[in-house]
């Protein structure tokens, strides 16, 4: 059974319309809203018409939910995130409204295949990795559990980039997802707010010389214009708003300058505004790139706060009640400047004194930290910050003075501790620490896994935690089961419904009823059949896009995530080289066929990450062409990894690679998606792997490597990677092969420096964990050899993943941080 029978789902809140009537609506939308007759309509036209028909139904619920929240005076959640990796929205909306089969039948009667047109919908280029996908899951779950919410971000025209692989190298191209328009969004010109940069600050005093207020007079002015996208909860329970800001110039063209002959100069204001919402994460390796990043962060933060304040004032007429009616959540440090901006708006625009404004600010904001990597805790050079945001620099100093006084008075901090909690980094270049600013300005600071939260207390925020011991709490991440099971894996969804009924569709914890079926041979066989079909779909995709043929009966071993040294794609590749050597050296052994899939983007300025992509492709080129391997091992790097690709790869995975250096991955959500779709995890005790292990049981996961404590001990004791490498024949042989040019005959020295780095420092413990990782992979082989045992373990994984629903996470946020009912 598949979701081809979703008409059997319990009726959604929205009435499921008759397919014949729906077909008539689609034809009408095609003619009057797209402007096409069915005889000449393209597949894109049918896609747009189909979306518009369903969107009309969504709007009714959207307007109703918004009005009810206003009339009831409900507290709203405002989620500020630089990324919302929402992917394609059509299937999401159709599924959540229970209209998938009605739309399929309606389109079929018109000679249009829903699956064909849905594949034409572009992925919204609004994010890059786990942080953005988490924000998207959270938005869907807030609508599902009935939390009134707005998401705020930037409407990127080109997003991160579209990744192509040319001769094994990553090539970055513009992501043109808006070329055909976006039928889901609504432009809100009336919700436009002015954003300033630079200029001067004037102190206004009373007649007797007392300071009355400050007035910031920006040198540059830009408009932020709102674009709204409705976010539909499961069964249409609630529709919330994703509001994205686009930059527009106050003066589109300097006409005098244009008429004087300086045609390029006349458009400089327009170009500056356009750049703000053009690209996600512009490379910050140059001063210009750093400046654009800071501009973007302030741009969307101030527009969002001005919008929130205007909405609050229109309803309540004053701002002292803001914390009671608005919960503003900072998704990582990107919107941290909002802390200083809210203070500026409260004090300079609305006349509230510092102490009251600071109290309002702290009670309104909450902050999620997503990293323990110092370089990912943003900081900005003081001269840059002061030049772009002079009033905010003054406010940062005022906040800092308050905190440092508290530290000395309450905790008797010494000079070193004072230096660490200061909002200003004084060692070397003076920089504004955005993580410290977000912490200081929030009443709640949460980690995203149990391990990560404890490490926050011990590392990056140890001193701030000592000063404010009640603020840090844990909210382990989750994923929406609608997108990551019901929608992306209809075969498994149908099988589960056949086996245990429909209750899990509304209560994902009901998946635990599958546990007893792991010992049922008939169910295991059906489960294996679903997995096989998903693997065949991925194999077809790889053959079509890349011309690589893979065997669906082989183990599909998948590592898909942002390319970064701490995520250790390099460890996986080196082990593949070692395995390649072993297969060739010992052909008499009973090797298990395996296909290793990689996918992910490297930041454009991250040299080693881009080199790792090239290495994966170089290794693939050699191994995949070697007849001595006999198809026992293949390597595939899937280009332009995004949400839609993940929706195909997650259900097809047998083995999920979650092998980051212990203590460095905050949580992970890919690990949850894989396990929910019946993959076994091989991983370190890092991030949410720890909690996944607790949920699925020690026998149903492959854990290896150093723990967080052991990593810290090795580094403290003076870890010698060279000795470790020389004591491991498999590792030393693999490194020698890579370093000597076996996989790069066109440039034998290409990987010499990358490999020598493992000998010299190996900060990410690749060598330290290699032997344990290789041994764990052979344990994987042993279990894979016994297919009933493998499938039983996979079923246990699916059955025990209900706790990792983002619905559970959002309810915890709502009850324990935001103080809203859920």
UniProtKB/TrEMBL annotation:
Q: Name one GO molecular function term.
A: pyridoxal phosphate binding
| Catalytic activity, as annotated | [(1->4)-alpha-D-glucosyl](n) + phosphate = [(1->4)-alpha-D-glucosyl](n-1) + alpha-D-glucose 1-phosphate
Q: Which residues carry this modification: N6-(pyridoxal phosphate)lysine?
A: 673
Q: Which CDD domains match?
A: GT35_Glycogen_Phosphorylase
E.C. no: 2.4.1.1
Q: Which cofactor does it need?
A: pyridoxal 5'-phosphate
- Biological-process GO terms, alphabetical: glycogen catabolic process
User: What UniProt keywords apply to this chain's record, in alphabetical order?
Assistant: Allosteric enzyme, Carbohydrate metabolism, Cytoplasm, Glycosyltransferase, Pyridoxal phosphate, Transferase
Which is one Gene Ontology cellular component term of this protein? cytoplasm
Q: Which InterPro entries match?
A: Glycg_phsphrylas (IPR011833), Glyco_trans_35 (IPR000811), Pyridoxal_P_attach_site (IPR035090)
Q: Where located?
A: Cytoplasm
Which NCBIfam families does the record match to this protein? P_ylase
Q: So what family is this one in?
A: Belongs to the glycogen phosphorylase family.
What is its biological role?
Phosphorylase is an important allosteric enzyme in carbohydrate metabolism. Enzymes from different sources differ in their regulatory mechanisms and in their natural substrates. However, all known phosphorylases share catalytic and structural properties.
Protein name as catalogued = Alpha-1,4 glucan phosphorylase
Species name = Mesorhizobium zhangyense
């Amino acid at each position: 059974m598949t979701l081809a029978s979703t008409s059997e789902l319990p009726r959604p809140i929205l009435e499921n319309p008759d397919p014949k009537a729906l077909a008539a609506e689609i034809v009408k939308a095609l003619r009057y809203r797209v402007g096409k007759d069915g005889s000449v309509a393209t597949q894109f036209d049918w896609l747009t018409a189909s979306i518009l028909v369903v969107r009309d139904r969504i709007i009714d619920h959207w307007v109703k939910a918004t009005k009810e929240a206003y009339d009831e005076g409900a507290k709203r959640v405002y989620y500020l995130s630089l990324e919302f990796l929402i992917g394609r929205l059509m299937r999401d909306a159709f599924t959540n409204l229970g209209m998938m089969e009605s739309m399929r039948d309606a389109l079929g009667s018109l000679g249009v295949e829903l699956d064909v047109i849905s594949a034409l919908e572009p992925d919204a280029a609004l994010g890059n990795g786990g942080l953005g996908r988490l924000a998207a899951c959270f938005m869907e779950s807030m609508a599902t559990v009935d939390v009134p919410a707005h998401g705020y971000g930037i409407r990127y025209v080109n997003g991160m980039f579209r990744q192509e692989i040319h001769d094994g190298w990553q090539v970055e191209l513009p992501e043109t997802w808006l070329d055909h328009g976006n039928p889901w969004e609504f432009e809100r010109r009336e919700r436009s707010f002015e954003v300033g940069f630079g200029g001067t600050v004037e102190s206004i005093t009373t007649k007797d010389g007392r300071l009355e207020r400050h007035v910031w007079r920006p040198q540059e002015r830009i408009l932020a214009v709102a674009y709204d996208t409705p976010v539909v909860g499961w069964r249409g329970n609630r529709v919330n708003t994703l509001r994205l800001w686009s930059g527009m110039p106050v003066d589109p063209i300097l006409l005098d300058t244009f008429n004087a002959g300086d045609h390029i100069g006349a458009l400089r204001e327009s170009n500056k505004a356009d750049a703000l919402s053009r690209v996600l994460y512009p490379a910050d390796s140059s001063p210009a790139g750093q400046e654009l990043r800071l501009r973007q962060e302030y741009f969307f933060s101030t527009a969002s706060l001005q919008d929130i304040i205007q909405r609050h004032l229109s309803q309540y007429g004053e701002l002292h009640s803001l914390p009671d009616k608005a919960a503003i959540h900072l998704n990582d440090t990107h919107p941290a400047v909002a802390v200083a901006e809210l203070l500026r708006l409260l004090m300079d625009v609305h006349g509230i004194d510092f102490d009251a404004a600071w109290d309002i600010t702290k009670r309104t904001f909450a902050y999620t930290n997503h990293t323990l990597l110092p370089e990912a805790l943003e900081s900005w050079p003081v001269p840059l910050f002061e030049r772009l945001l002079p009033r905010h620099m003054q406010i940062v100093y005022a906040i800092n003075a308050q905190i440092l006084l508290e530290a000395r008075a309450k905790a008797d901090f010494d000079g070193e501790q004072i230096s660490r909690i200061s909002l200003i980094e004084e060692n070397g270049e003076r920089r504004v620490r955005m993580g410290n600013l977000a912490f200081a300005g929030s009443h709640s600071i949460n980690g995203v896994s149990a391990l990560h939260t404890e490490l926050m207390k011990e590392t990056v925020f140890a001193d701030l935690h000592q000063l404010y011991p009640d603020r840090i709490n844990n909210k382990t991440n989750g994923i929406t089961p609608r997108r990551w099971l019901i929608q992306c894996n209809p075969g498994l969804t149908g099988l589960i419904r056949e086996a245990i009924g429909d209750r899990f569709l509304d209560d994902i914890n009901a998946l635990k009823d599958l546990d007893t079926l792991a010992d049922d041979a008939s169910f295991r066989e059906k489960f294996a059949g679903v997995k096989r079909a998903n693997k065949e779909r991925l194999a077809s995709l790889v053959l079509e896009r890349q011309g690589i043929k893979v065997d669906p009966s082989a183990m599909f071993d998948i590592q898909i995530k942002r390319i970064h040294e701490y995520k250790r794609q390099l460890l996986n590749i080196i082990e593949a080289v070692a395995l390649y050597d072993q297969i060739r050296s010992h052909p008499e052994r009973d090797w298990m066929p395996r296909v290793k899939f990689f996918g992910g983007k490297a930041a454009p300025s991250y040299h080693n990450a881009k080199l790792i992509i090239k290495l994966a492709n170089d290794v693939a080129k050699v191994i995949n062409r070697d007849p001595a391997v006999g198809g026992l091992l293949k390597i595939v790097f899937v280009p332009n990894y995004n949400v839609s690709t993940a929706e195909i790869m997650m259900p097809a995975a047998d083995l999920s690679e979650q092998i980051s250096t212990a203590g460095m991955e905050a949580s992970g959500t890919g690990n949850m998606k894989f396990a929910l779709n019946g993959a076994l995890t091989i991983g370190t005790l890092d991030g949410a792997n720890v909690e996944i292990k607790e949920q699925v049981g020690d026998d149903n996961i492959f854990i290896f490597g150093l723990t967080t404590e052991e990593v810290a001990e090795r580094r403290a004791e003076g870890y010698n990677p060279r000795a470790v490498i020389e004591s491991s024949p498999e590792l030393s042989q693999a490194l020698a092969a890579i370093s000597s040019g076996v996989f790069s005959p066109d440039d034998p020295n290409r990987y010499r420096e990358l490999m020598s780095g493992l000998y010299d420092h190996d900060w990410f413990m690749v060598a330290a964990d290699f032997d344990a990782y290789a041994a764990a992979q052979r344990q994987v082989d042993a279990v894979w050899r016994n297919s009933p045992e493998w499938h039983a373990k996979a079923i246990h994984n699916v059955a025990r993943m209900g706790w990792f629903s983002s619905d559970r996470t959002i309810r915890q946020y709502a009850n324990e941080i935001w103080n809203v009912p859920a």
